[in-house]
Specification:
heterodimer, A: alpha/beta, Rossmann fold, Heat Shock Protein 90, 17 strands, 50% helix, B: mainly alpha, ABC transporter involved in vitamin B12 uptake, BtuC, 15 helices
Chain lengths: 530, 340
């Protein structure tokens, strides 16, 4: 049977350098013929001659029984070539390159005046590239912007736009990664099953052993050996490749080649794993990013909740003050007035001597005395519920009256320093300061066993106020902890710290060097009109 | 890449009108027609301010007529340049095609036949150029220099050096009549030029051949490997160049009413200059018909301006030469080996 391709005594030299010398071989339809050889053995020169671009110095080539004359266009005959380095039209995009020389167009007049049908070409190119596991974000990307591996895959896709009779694969694997090398090998097998003949040159003996039917070995442009792949012996092929049969020379080369292939494969696998790892890392990174975002969101939510809570507490305090005010007014206006009128009636009864005996008069006097005491107590309660002076006379007056009263009741010596130009502050702030002093003094009375207390209120800057309460008592315990107080049922200092926090101020609690506790509270306040 | 990013981030804060203005500006600068357009506008503005004769419809229609055949020949020349070659024979082919037509007319042939003969002459010279450059693969500079000499020699040989006069009015009407479009009166050659520019733009921009012509200029090997008949493209490009040049020559002859063997001497320089100023790169692979049109127009407006301003005739040549050198230098800086 006439072979598909018959090459007879082909010789080609570039300048004085012989690239091919008297090479003859045949390729049957549907056969995969491998060409092994070191660099410079003539594999690429063979591809160059067979693609029809360079005329040989000598020899003949018959394709499907017809003798070929140089230069010829291999593609017109059904011969496709994949070169070692892809030749692409740099300015054109991916799909135009895939269909270069094979454009699908509107048939106007002849092939030259066709108008390319871009959309159909894009669709077909996408289908072919998907078979090769190559994906581009856009098929309109210029190939000049692609990686060398992508470019090589475009060149491979180019051979698949039209069924071919012979495909010359000239070692394109150098530019490909491990995965695409395997893809190329399986592609060669697919082509063979479709009845296409293949000439496969490769530097990698394992690739050749994997897919070829025969292996022809070239050495310095000459054909030195041919093996059936089934019966081929690796070492024998390598001996032919290197051009020596001397074992002493051959063994290190074998060893080196083996380890070279193994190293390359390892490197490829490592590279593959690295990409996987990098992808993993990138995924993890995005996960972290998401977590951080969620965390930030939660912190935000907490902040909002906290703000709402503070707001609620502020409202609660205000309402409590309102209620106290209301209560004290009720007490003052109703209960005390009632008591006073009862007292007045009793006085009238007492004065009416006709009715009451002397003995009864004594008792009435006693009752009236206790009613007066009751009124006094009630007034005091009203005062602490709602310092009566704070509404009308302001914080300074209220503090003065309160501290005097406190000193009188407890017998502790009290010193009060007030800044002269205190002015009036907004009502909630004045009340809070009053309450802070109240709580502080309560605390002193309960725990400090002090003999002297100093209360001072002064402006440290136009927008801040410093309240300090110093006593000469026994001081804070060493293991004093503000947070533990609530557990023990002591709310005095805790109440102070909460009020300070609501006002956005700072609280400082410390033992003085001279003994006793110093409470310092600094509170910001809005600008005050003097 | 980085520069762009910086620019766009700065642009991000400017109003959108300014931003789109800048984008338009960048797009304009990157077009290869840009320098021709600028030259045309600058020279045109200068002349309309300095003279009161430039901006008359009579002068403008004369200018457009005068560069129409240069532009038509430059359409063909630009194809030879885009595929990475050059055609020096264009001036001689213009003269030869005009002369052949004139001789046919004088011999009594009908006008259409005479025109056909002239066109075929130009096509033949172009085809010979294409065959020798494409199939035999000789350098186009030498080949077309030789065919230039041959064509010019034939004009002298056929006439003995005397011009051919008294051409029939049926032929002269091609170059001398105007077509009134409303208030606008367009010379016939100008209309030919505009029509051809549309046809050539479609050919270069939308057909397989056009795509191959551009690809041939920058990736010839890709076409070879893909089994495209590169030599055939070269033959077609040079033949088309010859045909268009011949058409330009016929229009010129019809306008002058005389076919002189010395006609169109030195026109190859104007034609190449028009193409190069219009953004056709001498390194191959880039160019556009619109650019060539603008380039040819700019050249003619400059020439016209120098005449209107009373510039000494010899210095006009110096100016044109300097302009061509500038255009080639610009092309070199933009695309040449230094950029590769």
């Amino acid at each position: 049977m006439e072979p598909l391709l018959r090459v007879v005594n082909l010789s080609k030299s570039f300048g004085t350098l012989p690239a091919l010398q008297q090479v003859s071989f045949q390729v049957q339809a549907g056969e995969v013929v491998g060409f092994a050889g070191q660099s410079g053995a003539g594999k690429s020169a063979l591809a160059m001659v067979l693609v029809g671009l360079y005329a040989p110095n000598e020899g003949e080539v018959y394709f499907a029984g017809r003798r070929l004359e140089w230069p010829y266009r291999a593609r017109a005959l059904g011969i496709e070539v994949i070169h070692q380095a892809p030749d692409l039209a740099e300015r054109l995009d991916v799909s135009s390159n895939v269909f270069l020389g094979n454009e699908i167009g509107w048939p106007l007049v002849g092939k030259w005046l066709q108008v390319p049908r871009r959309r159909q070409m894009d669709r077909e190119a996408a289908r072919i590239l998907a078979q090769l596991d190559v994906h581009f974000s856009s098929l309109r990307e210029r190939v000049a912007n692609l990686s060398s591996e992508q470019r090589q895959m475009v060149a491979i896709a180019r051979t698949m736009t039209r069924p071919a009779r012979l495909i010359i694969v000239d070692d394109p694997a150098l530019l490909l990664s491990y995965a695409y090398q395997q893809k190329l090998l399986s592609l060669i097998q697919t082509w063979q099953q479709q009845g296409t003949a293949i000439i496969f040159s490769s530097n990698n003996l394992d690739h050749l052993l994997a897919v070829t039917d025969r292996i022809i070995v070239l050495h310095r442009g000459r054909r030195v050996a041919e093996y059936r792949t089934d019966e081929a012996d690796r070492e024998e092929i390598i001996a032919a490749l290197v051009g020596t049969t001397d074992h002493q020379q051959l063994t290190p080369i074998l060893w080196a080649l083996d380890s070279y292939y193994r190293a390359r494969e390892q490197a490829e696998k490592l590279h593959h794993q690295q990409t996987l790892l990098e992808r993993d890392l990138a995924a993890q990174d995005t996960l972290n990013q998401e977590l951080i975002e969620q965390l930030a969101e939660q912190v935000n939510a907490l902040d909002r909740a906290n703000a709402a809570l503070q707001d609620a507490q502020r409202r609660l305090l205000t309402e409590r003050e309102q209620e106290r005010k209301h209560l004290s007014r009720e007490l003052h206006d109703q209960v005390i007035q009632d008591l006073l009128s009862v007292n007045y009636e009793l006085e009238e009864v007492e004065a009416d001597a006709d009715v009451t005996a002397a003995q009864e008069r004594e008792r009435l006097k006693e009752i009236r005395g206790s009613i007066r005491g009751l009124v006094g107590d009630l007034r005091h309660i009203c005062g602490s519920l709602r310092p009566p002076t704070i509404d009308s006379l302001g914080l300074g007056a209220a503090l003065q009256s309160y501290t005097q009263d406190w000193a009188r009741r407890t017998g502790v010596t009290m010193t009060l320093h007030l800044d002269a130009d205190l002015g009036r502050l907004p009502e909630p702030i004045e009340l809070s300061i009053f309450r802070i002093v109240q709580e502080g003094l309560n605390n002193v009375r309960k725990h400090a066993r002090a003999s002297k207390v100093q209360v001072a209120l002064k402006r440290t800057s136009p927008r801040t106020l410093l309240i300090s309460i110093a006593d000469d008592g026994q001081g804070l315990a060493e293991d004093f902890d503000l947070a533990a107080l609530a557990g023990a049922g002591h709310y005095g200092l805790l109440g102070i710290s909460e009020r300070v926090a609501l006002l956005g101020g700072r609280l400082k609690l410390q033992n003085q060097a001279s003994g006793g506790v110093l409470i310092q509270v600094e509170i910001p306040h809005p600008r005050v009109a003097k | 890449m980085d520069d762009k990013a910086i620019v766009s981030s700065q642009v991000g804060e400017t109003p959108s009108l300014l931003r789109s203005g800048r984008r338009l500006w960048r797009m304009l600068v990157s077009r290869h027609e840009f320098s021709a357009l600028v030259l045309l506008l600058v020279v045109g503005t200068f002349l309309s301010l300095r003279t009161n004769t430039f901006l008359t419809s009579n002068n403008l229609s004369n200018v457009s007529r005068a560069f129409s055949w240069i532009a038509i020949a430059a359409f063909g020349e630009s194809m030879a340049i885009i595929i990475g070659g050059i055609d020096l024979s264009v001036g001689a082919v213009m003269a030869l095609a005009g002369l052949i037509s004139a001789l046919c007319l004088r011999a009594g042939y009908a006008v259409p036949l005479a025109i056909l003969a002239g066109l075929l002459t130009g096509g033949l010279v172009g085809w010979v150029n294409g065959i020798v450059v494409g199939r035999v693969r000789l350098p186009p500079f030498i080949v077309t220099l030789a065919t230039m000499s041959i064509a010019r020699g034939i004009t002298f040989a056929l006439t003995g050096g005397w011009p051919v006069r008294d051409l029939p009015a049926g032929f002269r009407v091609l170059g001398q009549s105007d077509l009134a479009l409303g208030s606008l009166s367009l010379p016939l050659p100008t209309l030919f030029m505009l029509g051809l520019s549309v046809v050539m733009s479609l050919l270069l921009g939308h057909t397989v051949l056009g795509s191959y012509i551009f690809t041939l200029g920058n990736s010839e090997r890709a076409l070879l490997v893909c089994g495209v008949d590169v030599a055939q493209i070269k033959v077609m490009a040079y033949t088309l160049c010859g045909l268009l040049t011949a058409l330009g020559g016929l229009l010129m002859t019809a306008r002058l009413g005389v076919a002189a063997p010395t006609a169109a001497t030195g026109y190859e320089l104007d034609i190449i200059a028009g193409a190069v100023i219009g953004g056709t790169s001498l390194f191959g692979g880039t160019g556009s018909i619109l650019g060539v049109l603008l380039g040819a127009a700019a050249m003619q407006v400059l020439r016209n301006g120098l005449v209107l301003l009373g510039f000494p005739a010899y210095f006009q040549t110096v100016t044109i030469g300097a302009l061509i050198l500038t255009a080639i230098l610009l092309d070199y800086w933009r695309k040449g080996p230094a950029r590769q």
